[in-house]
Write a structure and sequence with these properties.
Blueprint (H helix, E strand, L loop, with lengths): L5 H13 L4 H13 L1 H19 L8 H11 L20 H24 L7 E8 L5 E8 L2 E6 L9 E9 L6 E5 L5 E5 L3 H4 L2 E10 L10 E6 L2 E2 L1
Antiparallel strand pairs: 1-2, 1-9, 2-3, 3-6, 4-5, 4-7, 7-8
Length: about 230
């Protein structure tokens, strides 16, 4: 496979993190993580993205009737429904097969409940993500962009400066001057409304500069430290 293809890397990383990449394919991918820095970074990015998405979803307790129905279908409690006696001309289904059917029904109910509860909170979807790494390829910030929001999370690898700030910039693809997206968090996360520049400026890469406290005094980067490409999701 051509692991240099960005679409393939993202697809494999997302499947790996979700747990749908299994068997020999999963074992091969685990070996790639250990030997390929780009694969490792892409996997980390998707772990942060999907785990972060889960953290934004408020837990919802299903109705008691849902659990009762699941327990009945799994055979843990007696059902009040009277089943019709199977005719003599029909064979009784094997217990193992019946258990598989009831488990599938229960799983379907759970998926329906979860999807109904959390579906609206996934909007608006994140459309682009980026990871800003240092010279040792350690991730410092995870950046998520949607149509309405710019969200940045600092990692534990970031060493904050008490006398300086880090500022995020768009480096336009047309060669025009960089455009500031604001000061980056030194810990935790920061969410702001998506700047209009994200929509109107053709982006080549994102850049991080080291600035005096409060941001660049000139409106342009003082000392560029890192750059990162954006990945569509």
């Amino acid at each position: 496979m051509n692991y240099q293809a960005e679409s393939l890397r993202n697809a494999l990383a997302a499947e790996y993190v979700l747990g749908t990449l299994r068997g020999g394919a999963r074992r091969r991918y685990q070996k790639l993580i250990m030997s390929n820095q780009t694969i490792a970074e892409t996997t980390w990015l998707w772990e942060q993205y999907l785990n972060g998405m889960g953290e934004t979803i408020a837990p919802v307790a299903p109705d008691a009737r849902v659990w009762q129905s699941i327990q009945q279908k799994l055979g843990f409690v007696e059902s009040n429904v009277v089943l019709k006696e199977v005719g003599k001309g029909h064979q009784k289904q094997p217990t193992g097969w019946r258990n598989m059917v009831t488990f599938a029904i229960a799983a379907s109910i759970l998926i329906a409940v979860i999807w109904t509860a959390v579906g609206p909170s996934l909007m608006p979807p994140v459309t682009q993500i980026a990871v800003v790494n240092n010279q040792q390829s350690q991730p410092l910030w995870l950046i998520e962009i949607s149509d309405r929001q710019l969200r940045v999370r600092a990692t534990e690898q970031l060493t904050a400066r008490v006398d300086k700030d880090f500022e995020l910039w768009i480096v336009p693809a047309d060669g025009t001057a960089p455009v500031s997206l604001g000061v980056l968090p030194k810990a935790g996360e920061k969410s702001v409304a998506a700047p209009e520049s994200l929509k109107r400026v053709p982006i080549n890469v994102l850049a991080v500069s080291l600035e005096p406290l409060g941001g660049s005094p000139t409106g342009q980067p003082t000392e560029v430290l890192y750059t990162s490409a954006l990945t569509a999701v």
